[in-house]
Structure formats: structure tokens, C-alpha cells
Amino acid sequence: MRLNKNFSLVLSGGGALGIAHLGVLEDLEDRGLIPSEIVGTSMGGIVGACVAIGLKEKEIFALIEEFSNLFNWIKFSFKGNSIIKSEKIEDIFETIFGDLKIKEAKIPLKLIATKLSDGDKKVFSKDDEIYIKDALLATMAIPGIFEEKVIDGVAYGDGFLCENLGILEADLDDVLAVDVLGKNSFYRSLPNNFLKTKNVLDMFEKSMRLLIYNQTKTNLKNCKKDILLIEPDTKEYKTFHFHKFKEIKELGKGLL
């Protein structure tokens, strides 16, 4: 599929792996291509929201560089349901997005979250009277890791629980979808480390990637749109490797 002037850009979740989205953004900018709509989940939602308010790839990369120091945004929690409090992340989002609402984005934006009460998908869009910063806190709230985000009395968690690659939410017929947790995000072989603990942790992460990958495969089969799917080779990196932002960004370049 050749991209034309009207296409939806769909960016998947994947923690630090989502930095690879920036490589694709750089290629789009080099070609003078601007999406007519952006759909994002979790880290893809954060990157997508930055694009939607008019930030360029270099500006987003500079923000990611700040994120690369975990202590700039991590504050451990000793209460509640999560390991990390959202306090510092809220401050960062406040600096970037201020009081902008989704309906005020320059490019129509959709952010996917999950209702923790029943697992239903929630797509925050221009139809919702919601601040971008609040919708982002919802879409990135990995249960047990980040605090759930309560909006109008409803608790939301990370969108990967229901749709990590939001192709089903794209309005346009032509879709550029970037999946950092796709077929190139895991090894075909099983872990074979010297330490059993590392094997167990690697097996857990592999299982999560397979779970998300299978979810996306099902959605791709059920989607009738014309999709250009990009799956960066992220298997060498972990979802918490924010300090490797330069290397991960390069994974998304040259794939268009």
C-alpha cells in the first residue's frame, strides 16, 4: 500500500519499545506525510498525542531523552494497587499538554484505555470532554505497575489489555500501523540463561508479548481496512529499556 494524504496512524503500546515509533515519524516527516488521524495505546498514545498537538519528531525525541533517566518520572508507592505513583508523570504531562483537551488537538486523536471494572474498551476522542493528560494517564496505567486513573468515577488501566494496536478504531480506509510488539518482538526459541531467575523473567515477558501479539493478529484478521503494517525488530530490548532510547529509535527507521 502506498500512503496518500489521508491516512490513520496507529501506534501500539510497548513501554520503551514504543520509542521505535520515532524512527517511523522521522521517515514520515522526511516524506512530508502528515496523518489525518492518530490512534494510540499506552506509549504509542504518548507519542501520538505529542504529534497530535504539533510537536515534531526531534522535539519528542528530546522529551524521551528526559524520560531515559527513570528517576525523572518514577516515584515508588507504598500504598494502593501499584508500585509507581503517577505524581511525577502527571507533572511531565502537565508541562507538555497543559490543559489541552483531546478535542483541541491539531490532528484528531484517539487514546485507548481499559475499564478495570469489566475489561471493556474505552476510546477517548474528541467526543469526550477530557484533558489529554488525563486520557494518557489512563492509557498507560499498567495494572500493578502504574496507578489506575479514575475519571468520572471509573477506574481505567492500560489499553493493551483490550487493544494494543488500535486498528479497529481507525476511521480512515488507509492505515499505517506500527506494532512494536508484533511478530519481530520475541524470539522463537525458549530462554536458555545460566540463572533460572532470568529464565523465569524472560519466559514471563515472552508470554506477555505472545498474548498481545495473538490479540493483534485476531484484530488484523477482522479489520477490513487497507493496512500498511510495520513491525520493528524489538526482540533484543525490554519494555523498561528507556536508557537505550537512541538504539530503539533506530529500529523504526527505514521501514516505510
What class would the helix/strand composition place it in? alpha/beta
Beta-strand percentage range: 15-25%
- Overall strand count: 10
Q: Globular, elongated, flat, extended or rod-shaped: what is the shape? A: globular
Major sheet summary line = 8 strands, mixed
**Helix and strand element order:** EHEHHEEHEEHEEEHEH
Distance between the termini: 10 Å
Nearest-integer average pLDDT: 91
Radius of gyration: 17 Å
Uncertain stretches of 5 or more adjacent residues:
none
Helix content: 25-40%
Count of runs of 4 or more consecutive helical residues: 7
Q: Mind sketching the topology for me?
A:
Blueprint: E1 8-11, H1 21-30, E2 37-41, H2 43-52, H3 57-67, E3 75-76, E4 84-85, H4 87-97, E5 109-115, E6 121-124, H5 132-139, E7 149-151, E8 154-158, E9 174-178, H6 196-222, E10 226-230, H7 245-250
Parallel strand pairs: 1-2, 1-9, 2-5, 9-10
Antiparallel strand pairs: 3-4, 5-6, 5-8, 7-8
Could you characterize the architecture of this molecule?
This protein is an alpha/beta fold and 256 residues long. 32% of the residues lie in helices and 16% in strands. The protein contains 7 helices and 10 strands. It has helices at 21-30, 43-52, 57-67, 87-97, 132-139, 196-222, 245-250, and strands spanning 8-11, 37-41, 75-76, 84-85, 109-115, 121-124, 149-151, 154-158, 174-178, 226-230. Strands 1, 2, 5, 6, 7, 8, 9 and 10 form an 8-stranded mixed β-sheet that branches. It has a two-stranded antiparallel ribbon with strand order 3-4. α1 (21-30) packs antiparallel against α3 and α4 (87-97) crosses α5. The protein starts with 7 loop residues before the first strand and ends in a 6-residue tail after the last helix.
